[in-house]
Amino acid sequence: MGVFRHDEIIETDSVYMVNLPTPPARFFASDNFSGAHPRYIDALSRANKGHVPAYGNDALSHRANELFNELCGVDVEMLCVFGGTGSNVVALGNVLQPAESVLCTQWSHINVDETGAPEKLLGAKLQDVASVDGKLRVSDIEQAAQAIGNIHHVQPGVVSITQATELGTLYSADEISNICDAAHSFGMRVHLDGARIANAVAALGGNAATFRSLTFDAGVDVVSFGGTKNAMLGAEVVLLPRTQNSTRGKLIRKQFTQMPSKQRFISAQFVTALEDGFWIETAAHANAMALRLYEALADIESLQLVRPAVNSLYPIVEPAVKKALQEWSFFWDWDLTAHQVRWMTSWDTTAEDVDAFALGVRQALGFS
Ligand SMILES: Cc1ncc(COP(=O)(O)O)c(C=O)c1O
Fold first, then answer.
1. Is 162 touching ligand 1 by the criterion CB < 6 Å?
2. Residue 152, exposed/middle/buried by CB under 10 A (0-12, 13-18, 19+)?
3. How far is it, in rounded angstroms, from Cα 283 to Cα 273?
4. Which residues of the chain have pLDDT under 50?
5. For the chain, first and last CA: distance in Å?
6. CB of 23 sitting under 6 A from ligand 1
7. Which CATH architecture has domain 38-275?
8. What does pTM read for this prediction?
9. Which listed residue, 40, 90, 124, 178, has the most CB atoms within 10 A of its CB?
10. Ligand 1: residue whose CA is nearest its atom 8
11. pLDDT at residue 7, rounded to an integer
12. How high is the pLDDT of residue 17?
């Protein structure tokens, strides 16, 4: 610890004085704060031997694609990319047509956290709809569809949903299936931002069939499958069912500057992740740690904690206590006007981290 300068991020004029215990060894800020699991580092080392063909023509990339075919239940074009934003842009670029928009929620990462990359790179309007829980609904699609055929209105072409959502909520398989049916009935396609799909799969059944039920079996047309938040190192992939025209996906990826030349290093991690379901294990652990934190603090009413579905909690903490806690063990603000913050666990969060963090929160709130 000590490498993260939280005083660069938050103001340090807190006047709230409280003696807090030893902080946890790891932060509760983000699953991106954690490093990579040693199994992935080993996979990278093993892949780091000799010369192999570039741009995905190597044995590890072929193996990773086979494993994704098995996982998806359909043959997919596996488009490895460098990051989650790139993944979303490449995925959307594969299913958008000219003069079309992308329907998403107000909270969606593509809408608020991608610096306008989808709009700039795709040249498409994002139509964000209000949502209290981060989920898009069939009624939103029906409402947007009223513009279809009106030559003065952008045409809703793609519905983008996030699973698990940016608010830590989950769509059921039936909800996704209903969204896909509604979208398809209006000629729209469906994109699933799965930056945290592993956490969703772990929470909703924990196996490959769960993944399929939430994605391609439900009718999703393209998936951004995340690895980086789930213990990998720069490993993200777009999954696109193979068609006769499947080289188009690779062309779009290259145009959006997301084509890794030494793809073996990304593929090696996905082989390790998928061969024995390891990707679900690490996510299940992160989810379990969030639940442990919830159970340790649920009695404190002022926090207004909701039982977590995946690996994040969104408590209410009044400003002075919040500052003291952030200076003690950094975490992000979520909604400043509501005094809401986000606590997030990761693959490497330990029970000791949770207990130490919970103790600090209790003491800061006078509950020890
Ligand atoms: C829902 C969601 N999608 C995508 C991303 C990927 O973003 P990045 O480009 O930072 O990897 C994130 C990261 O926070 C996310 O939360």
1. yes
2. exposed
3. 11
4. 1-12
5. 25
6. no
7. 3-Layer(aba) Sandwich (3.40)
8. 0.95
9. 90
10. 84
11. 39
12. 65
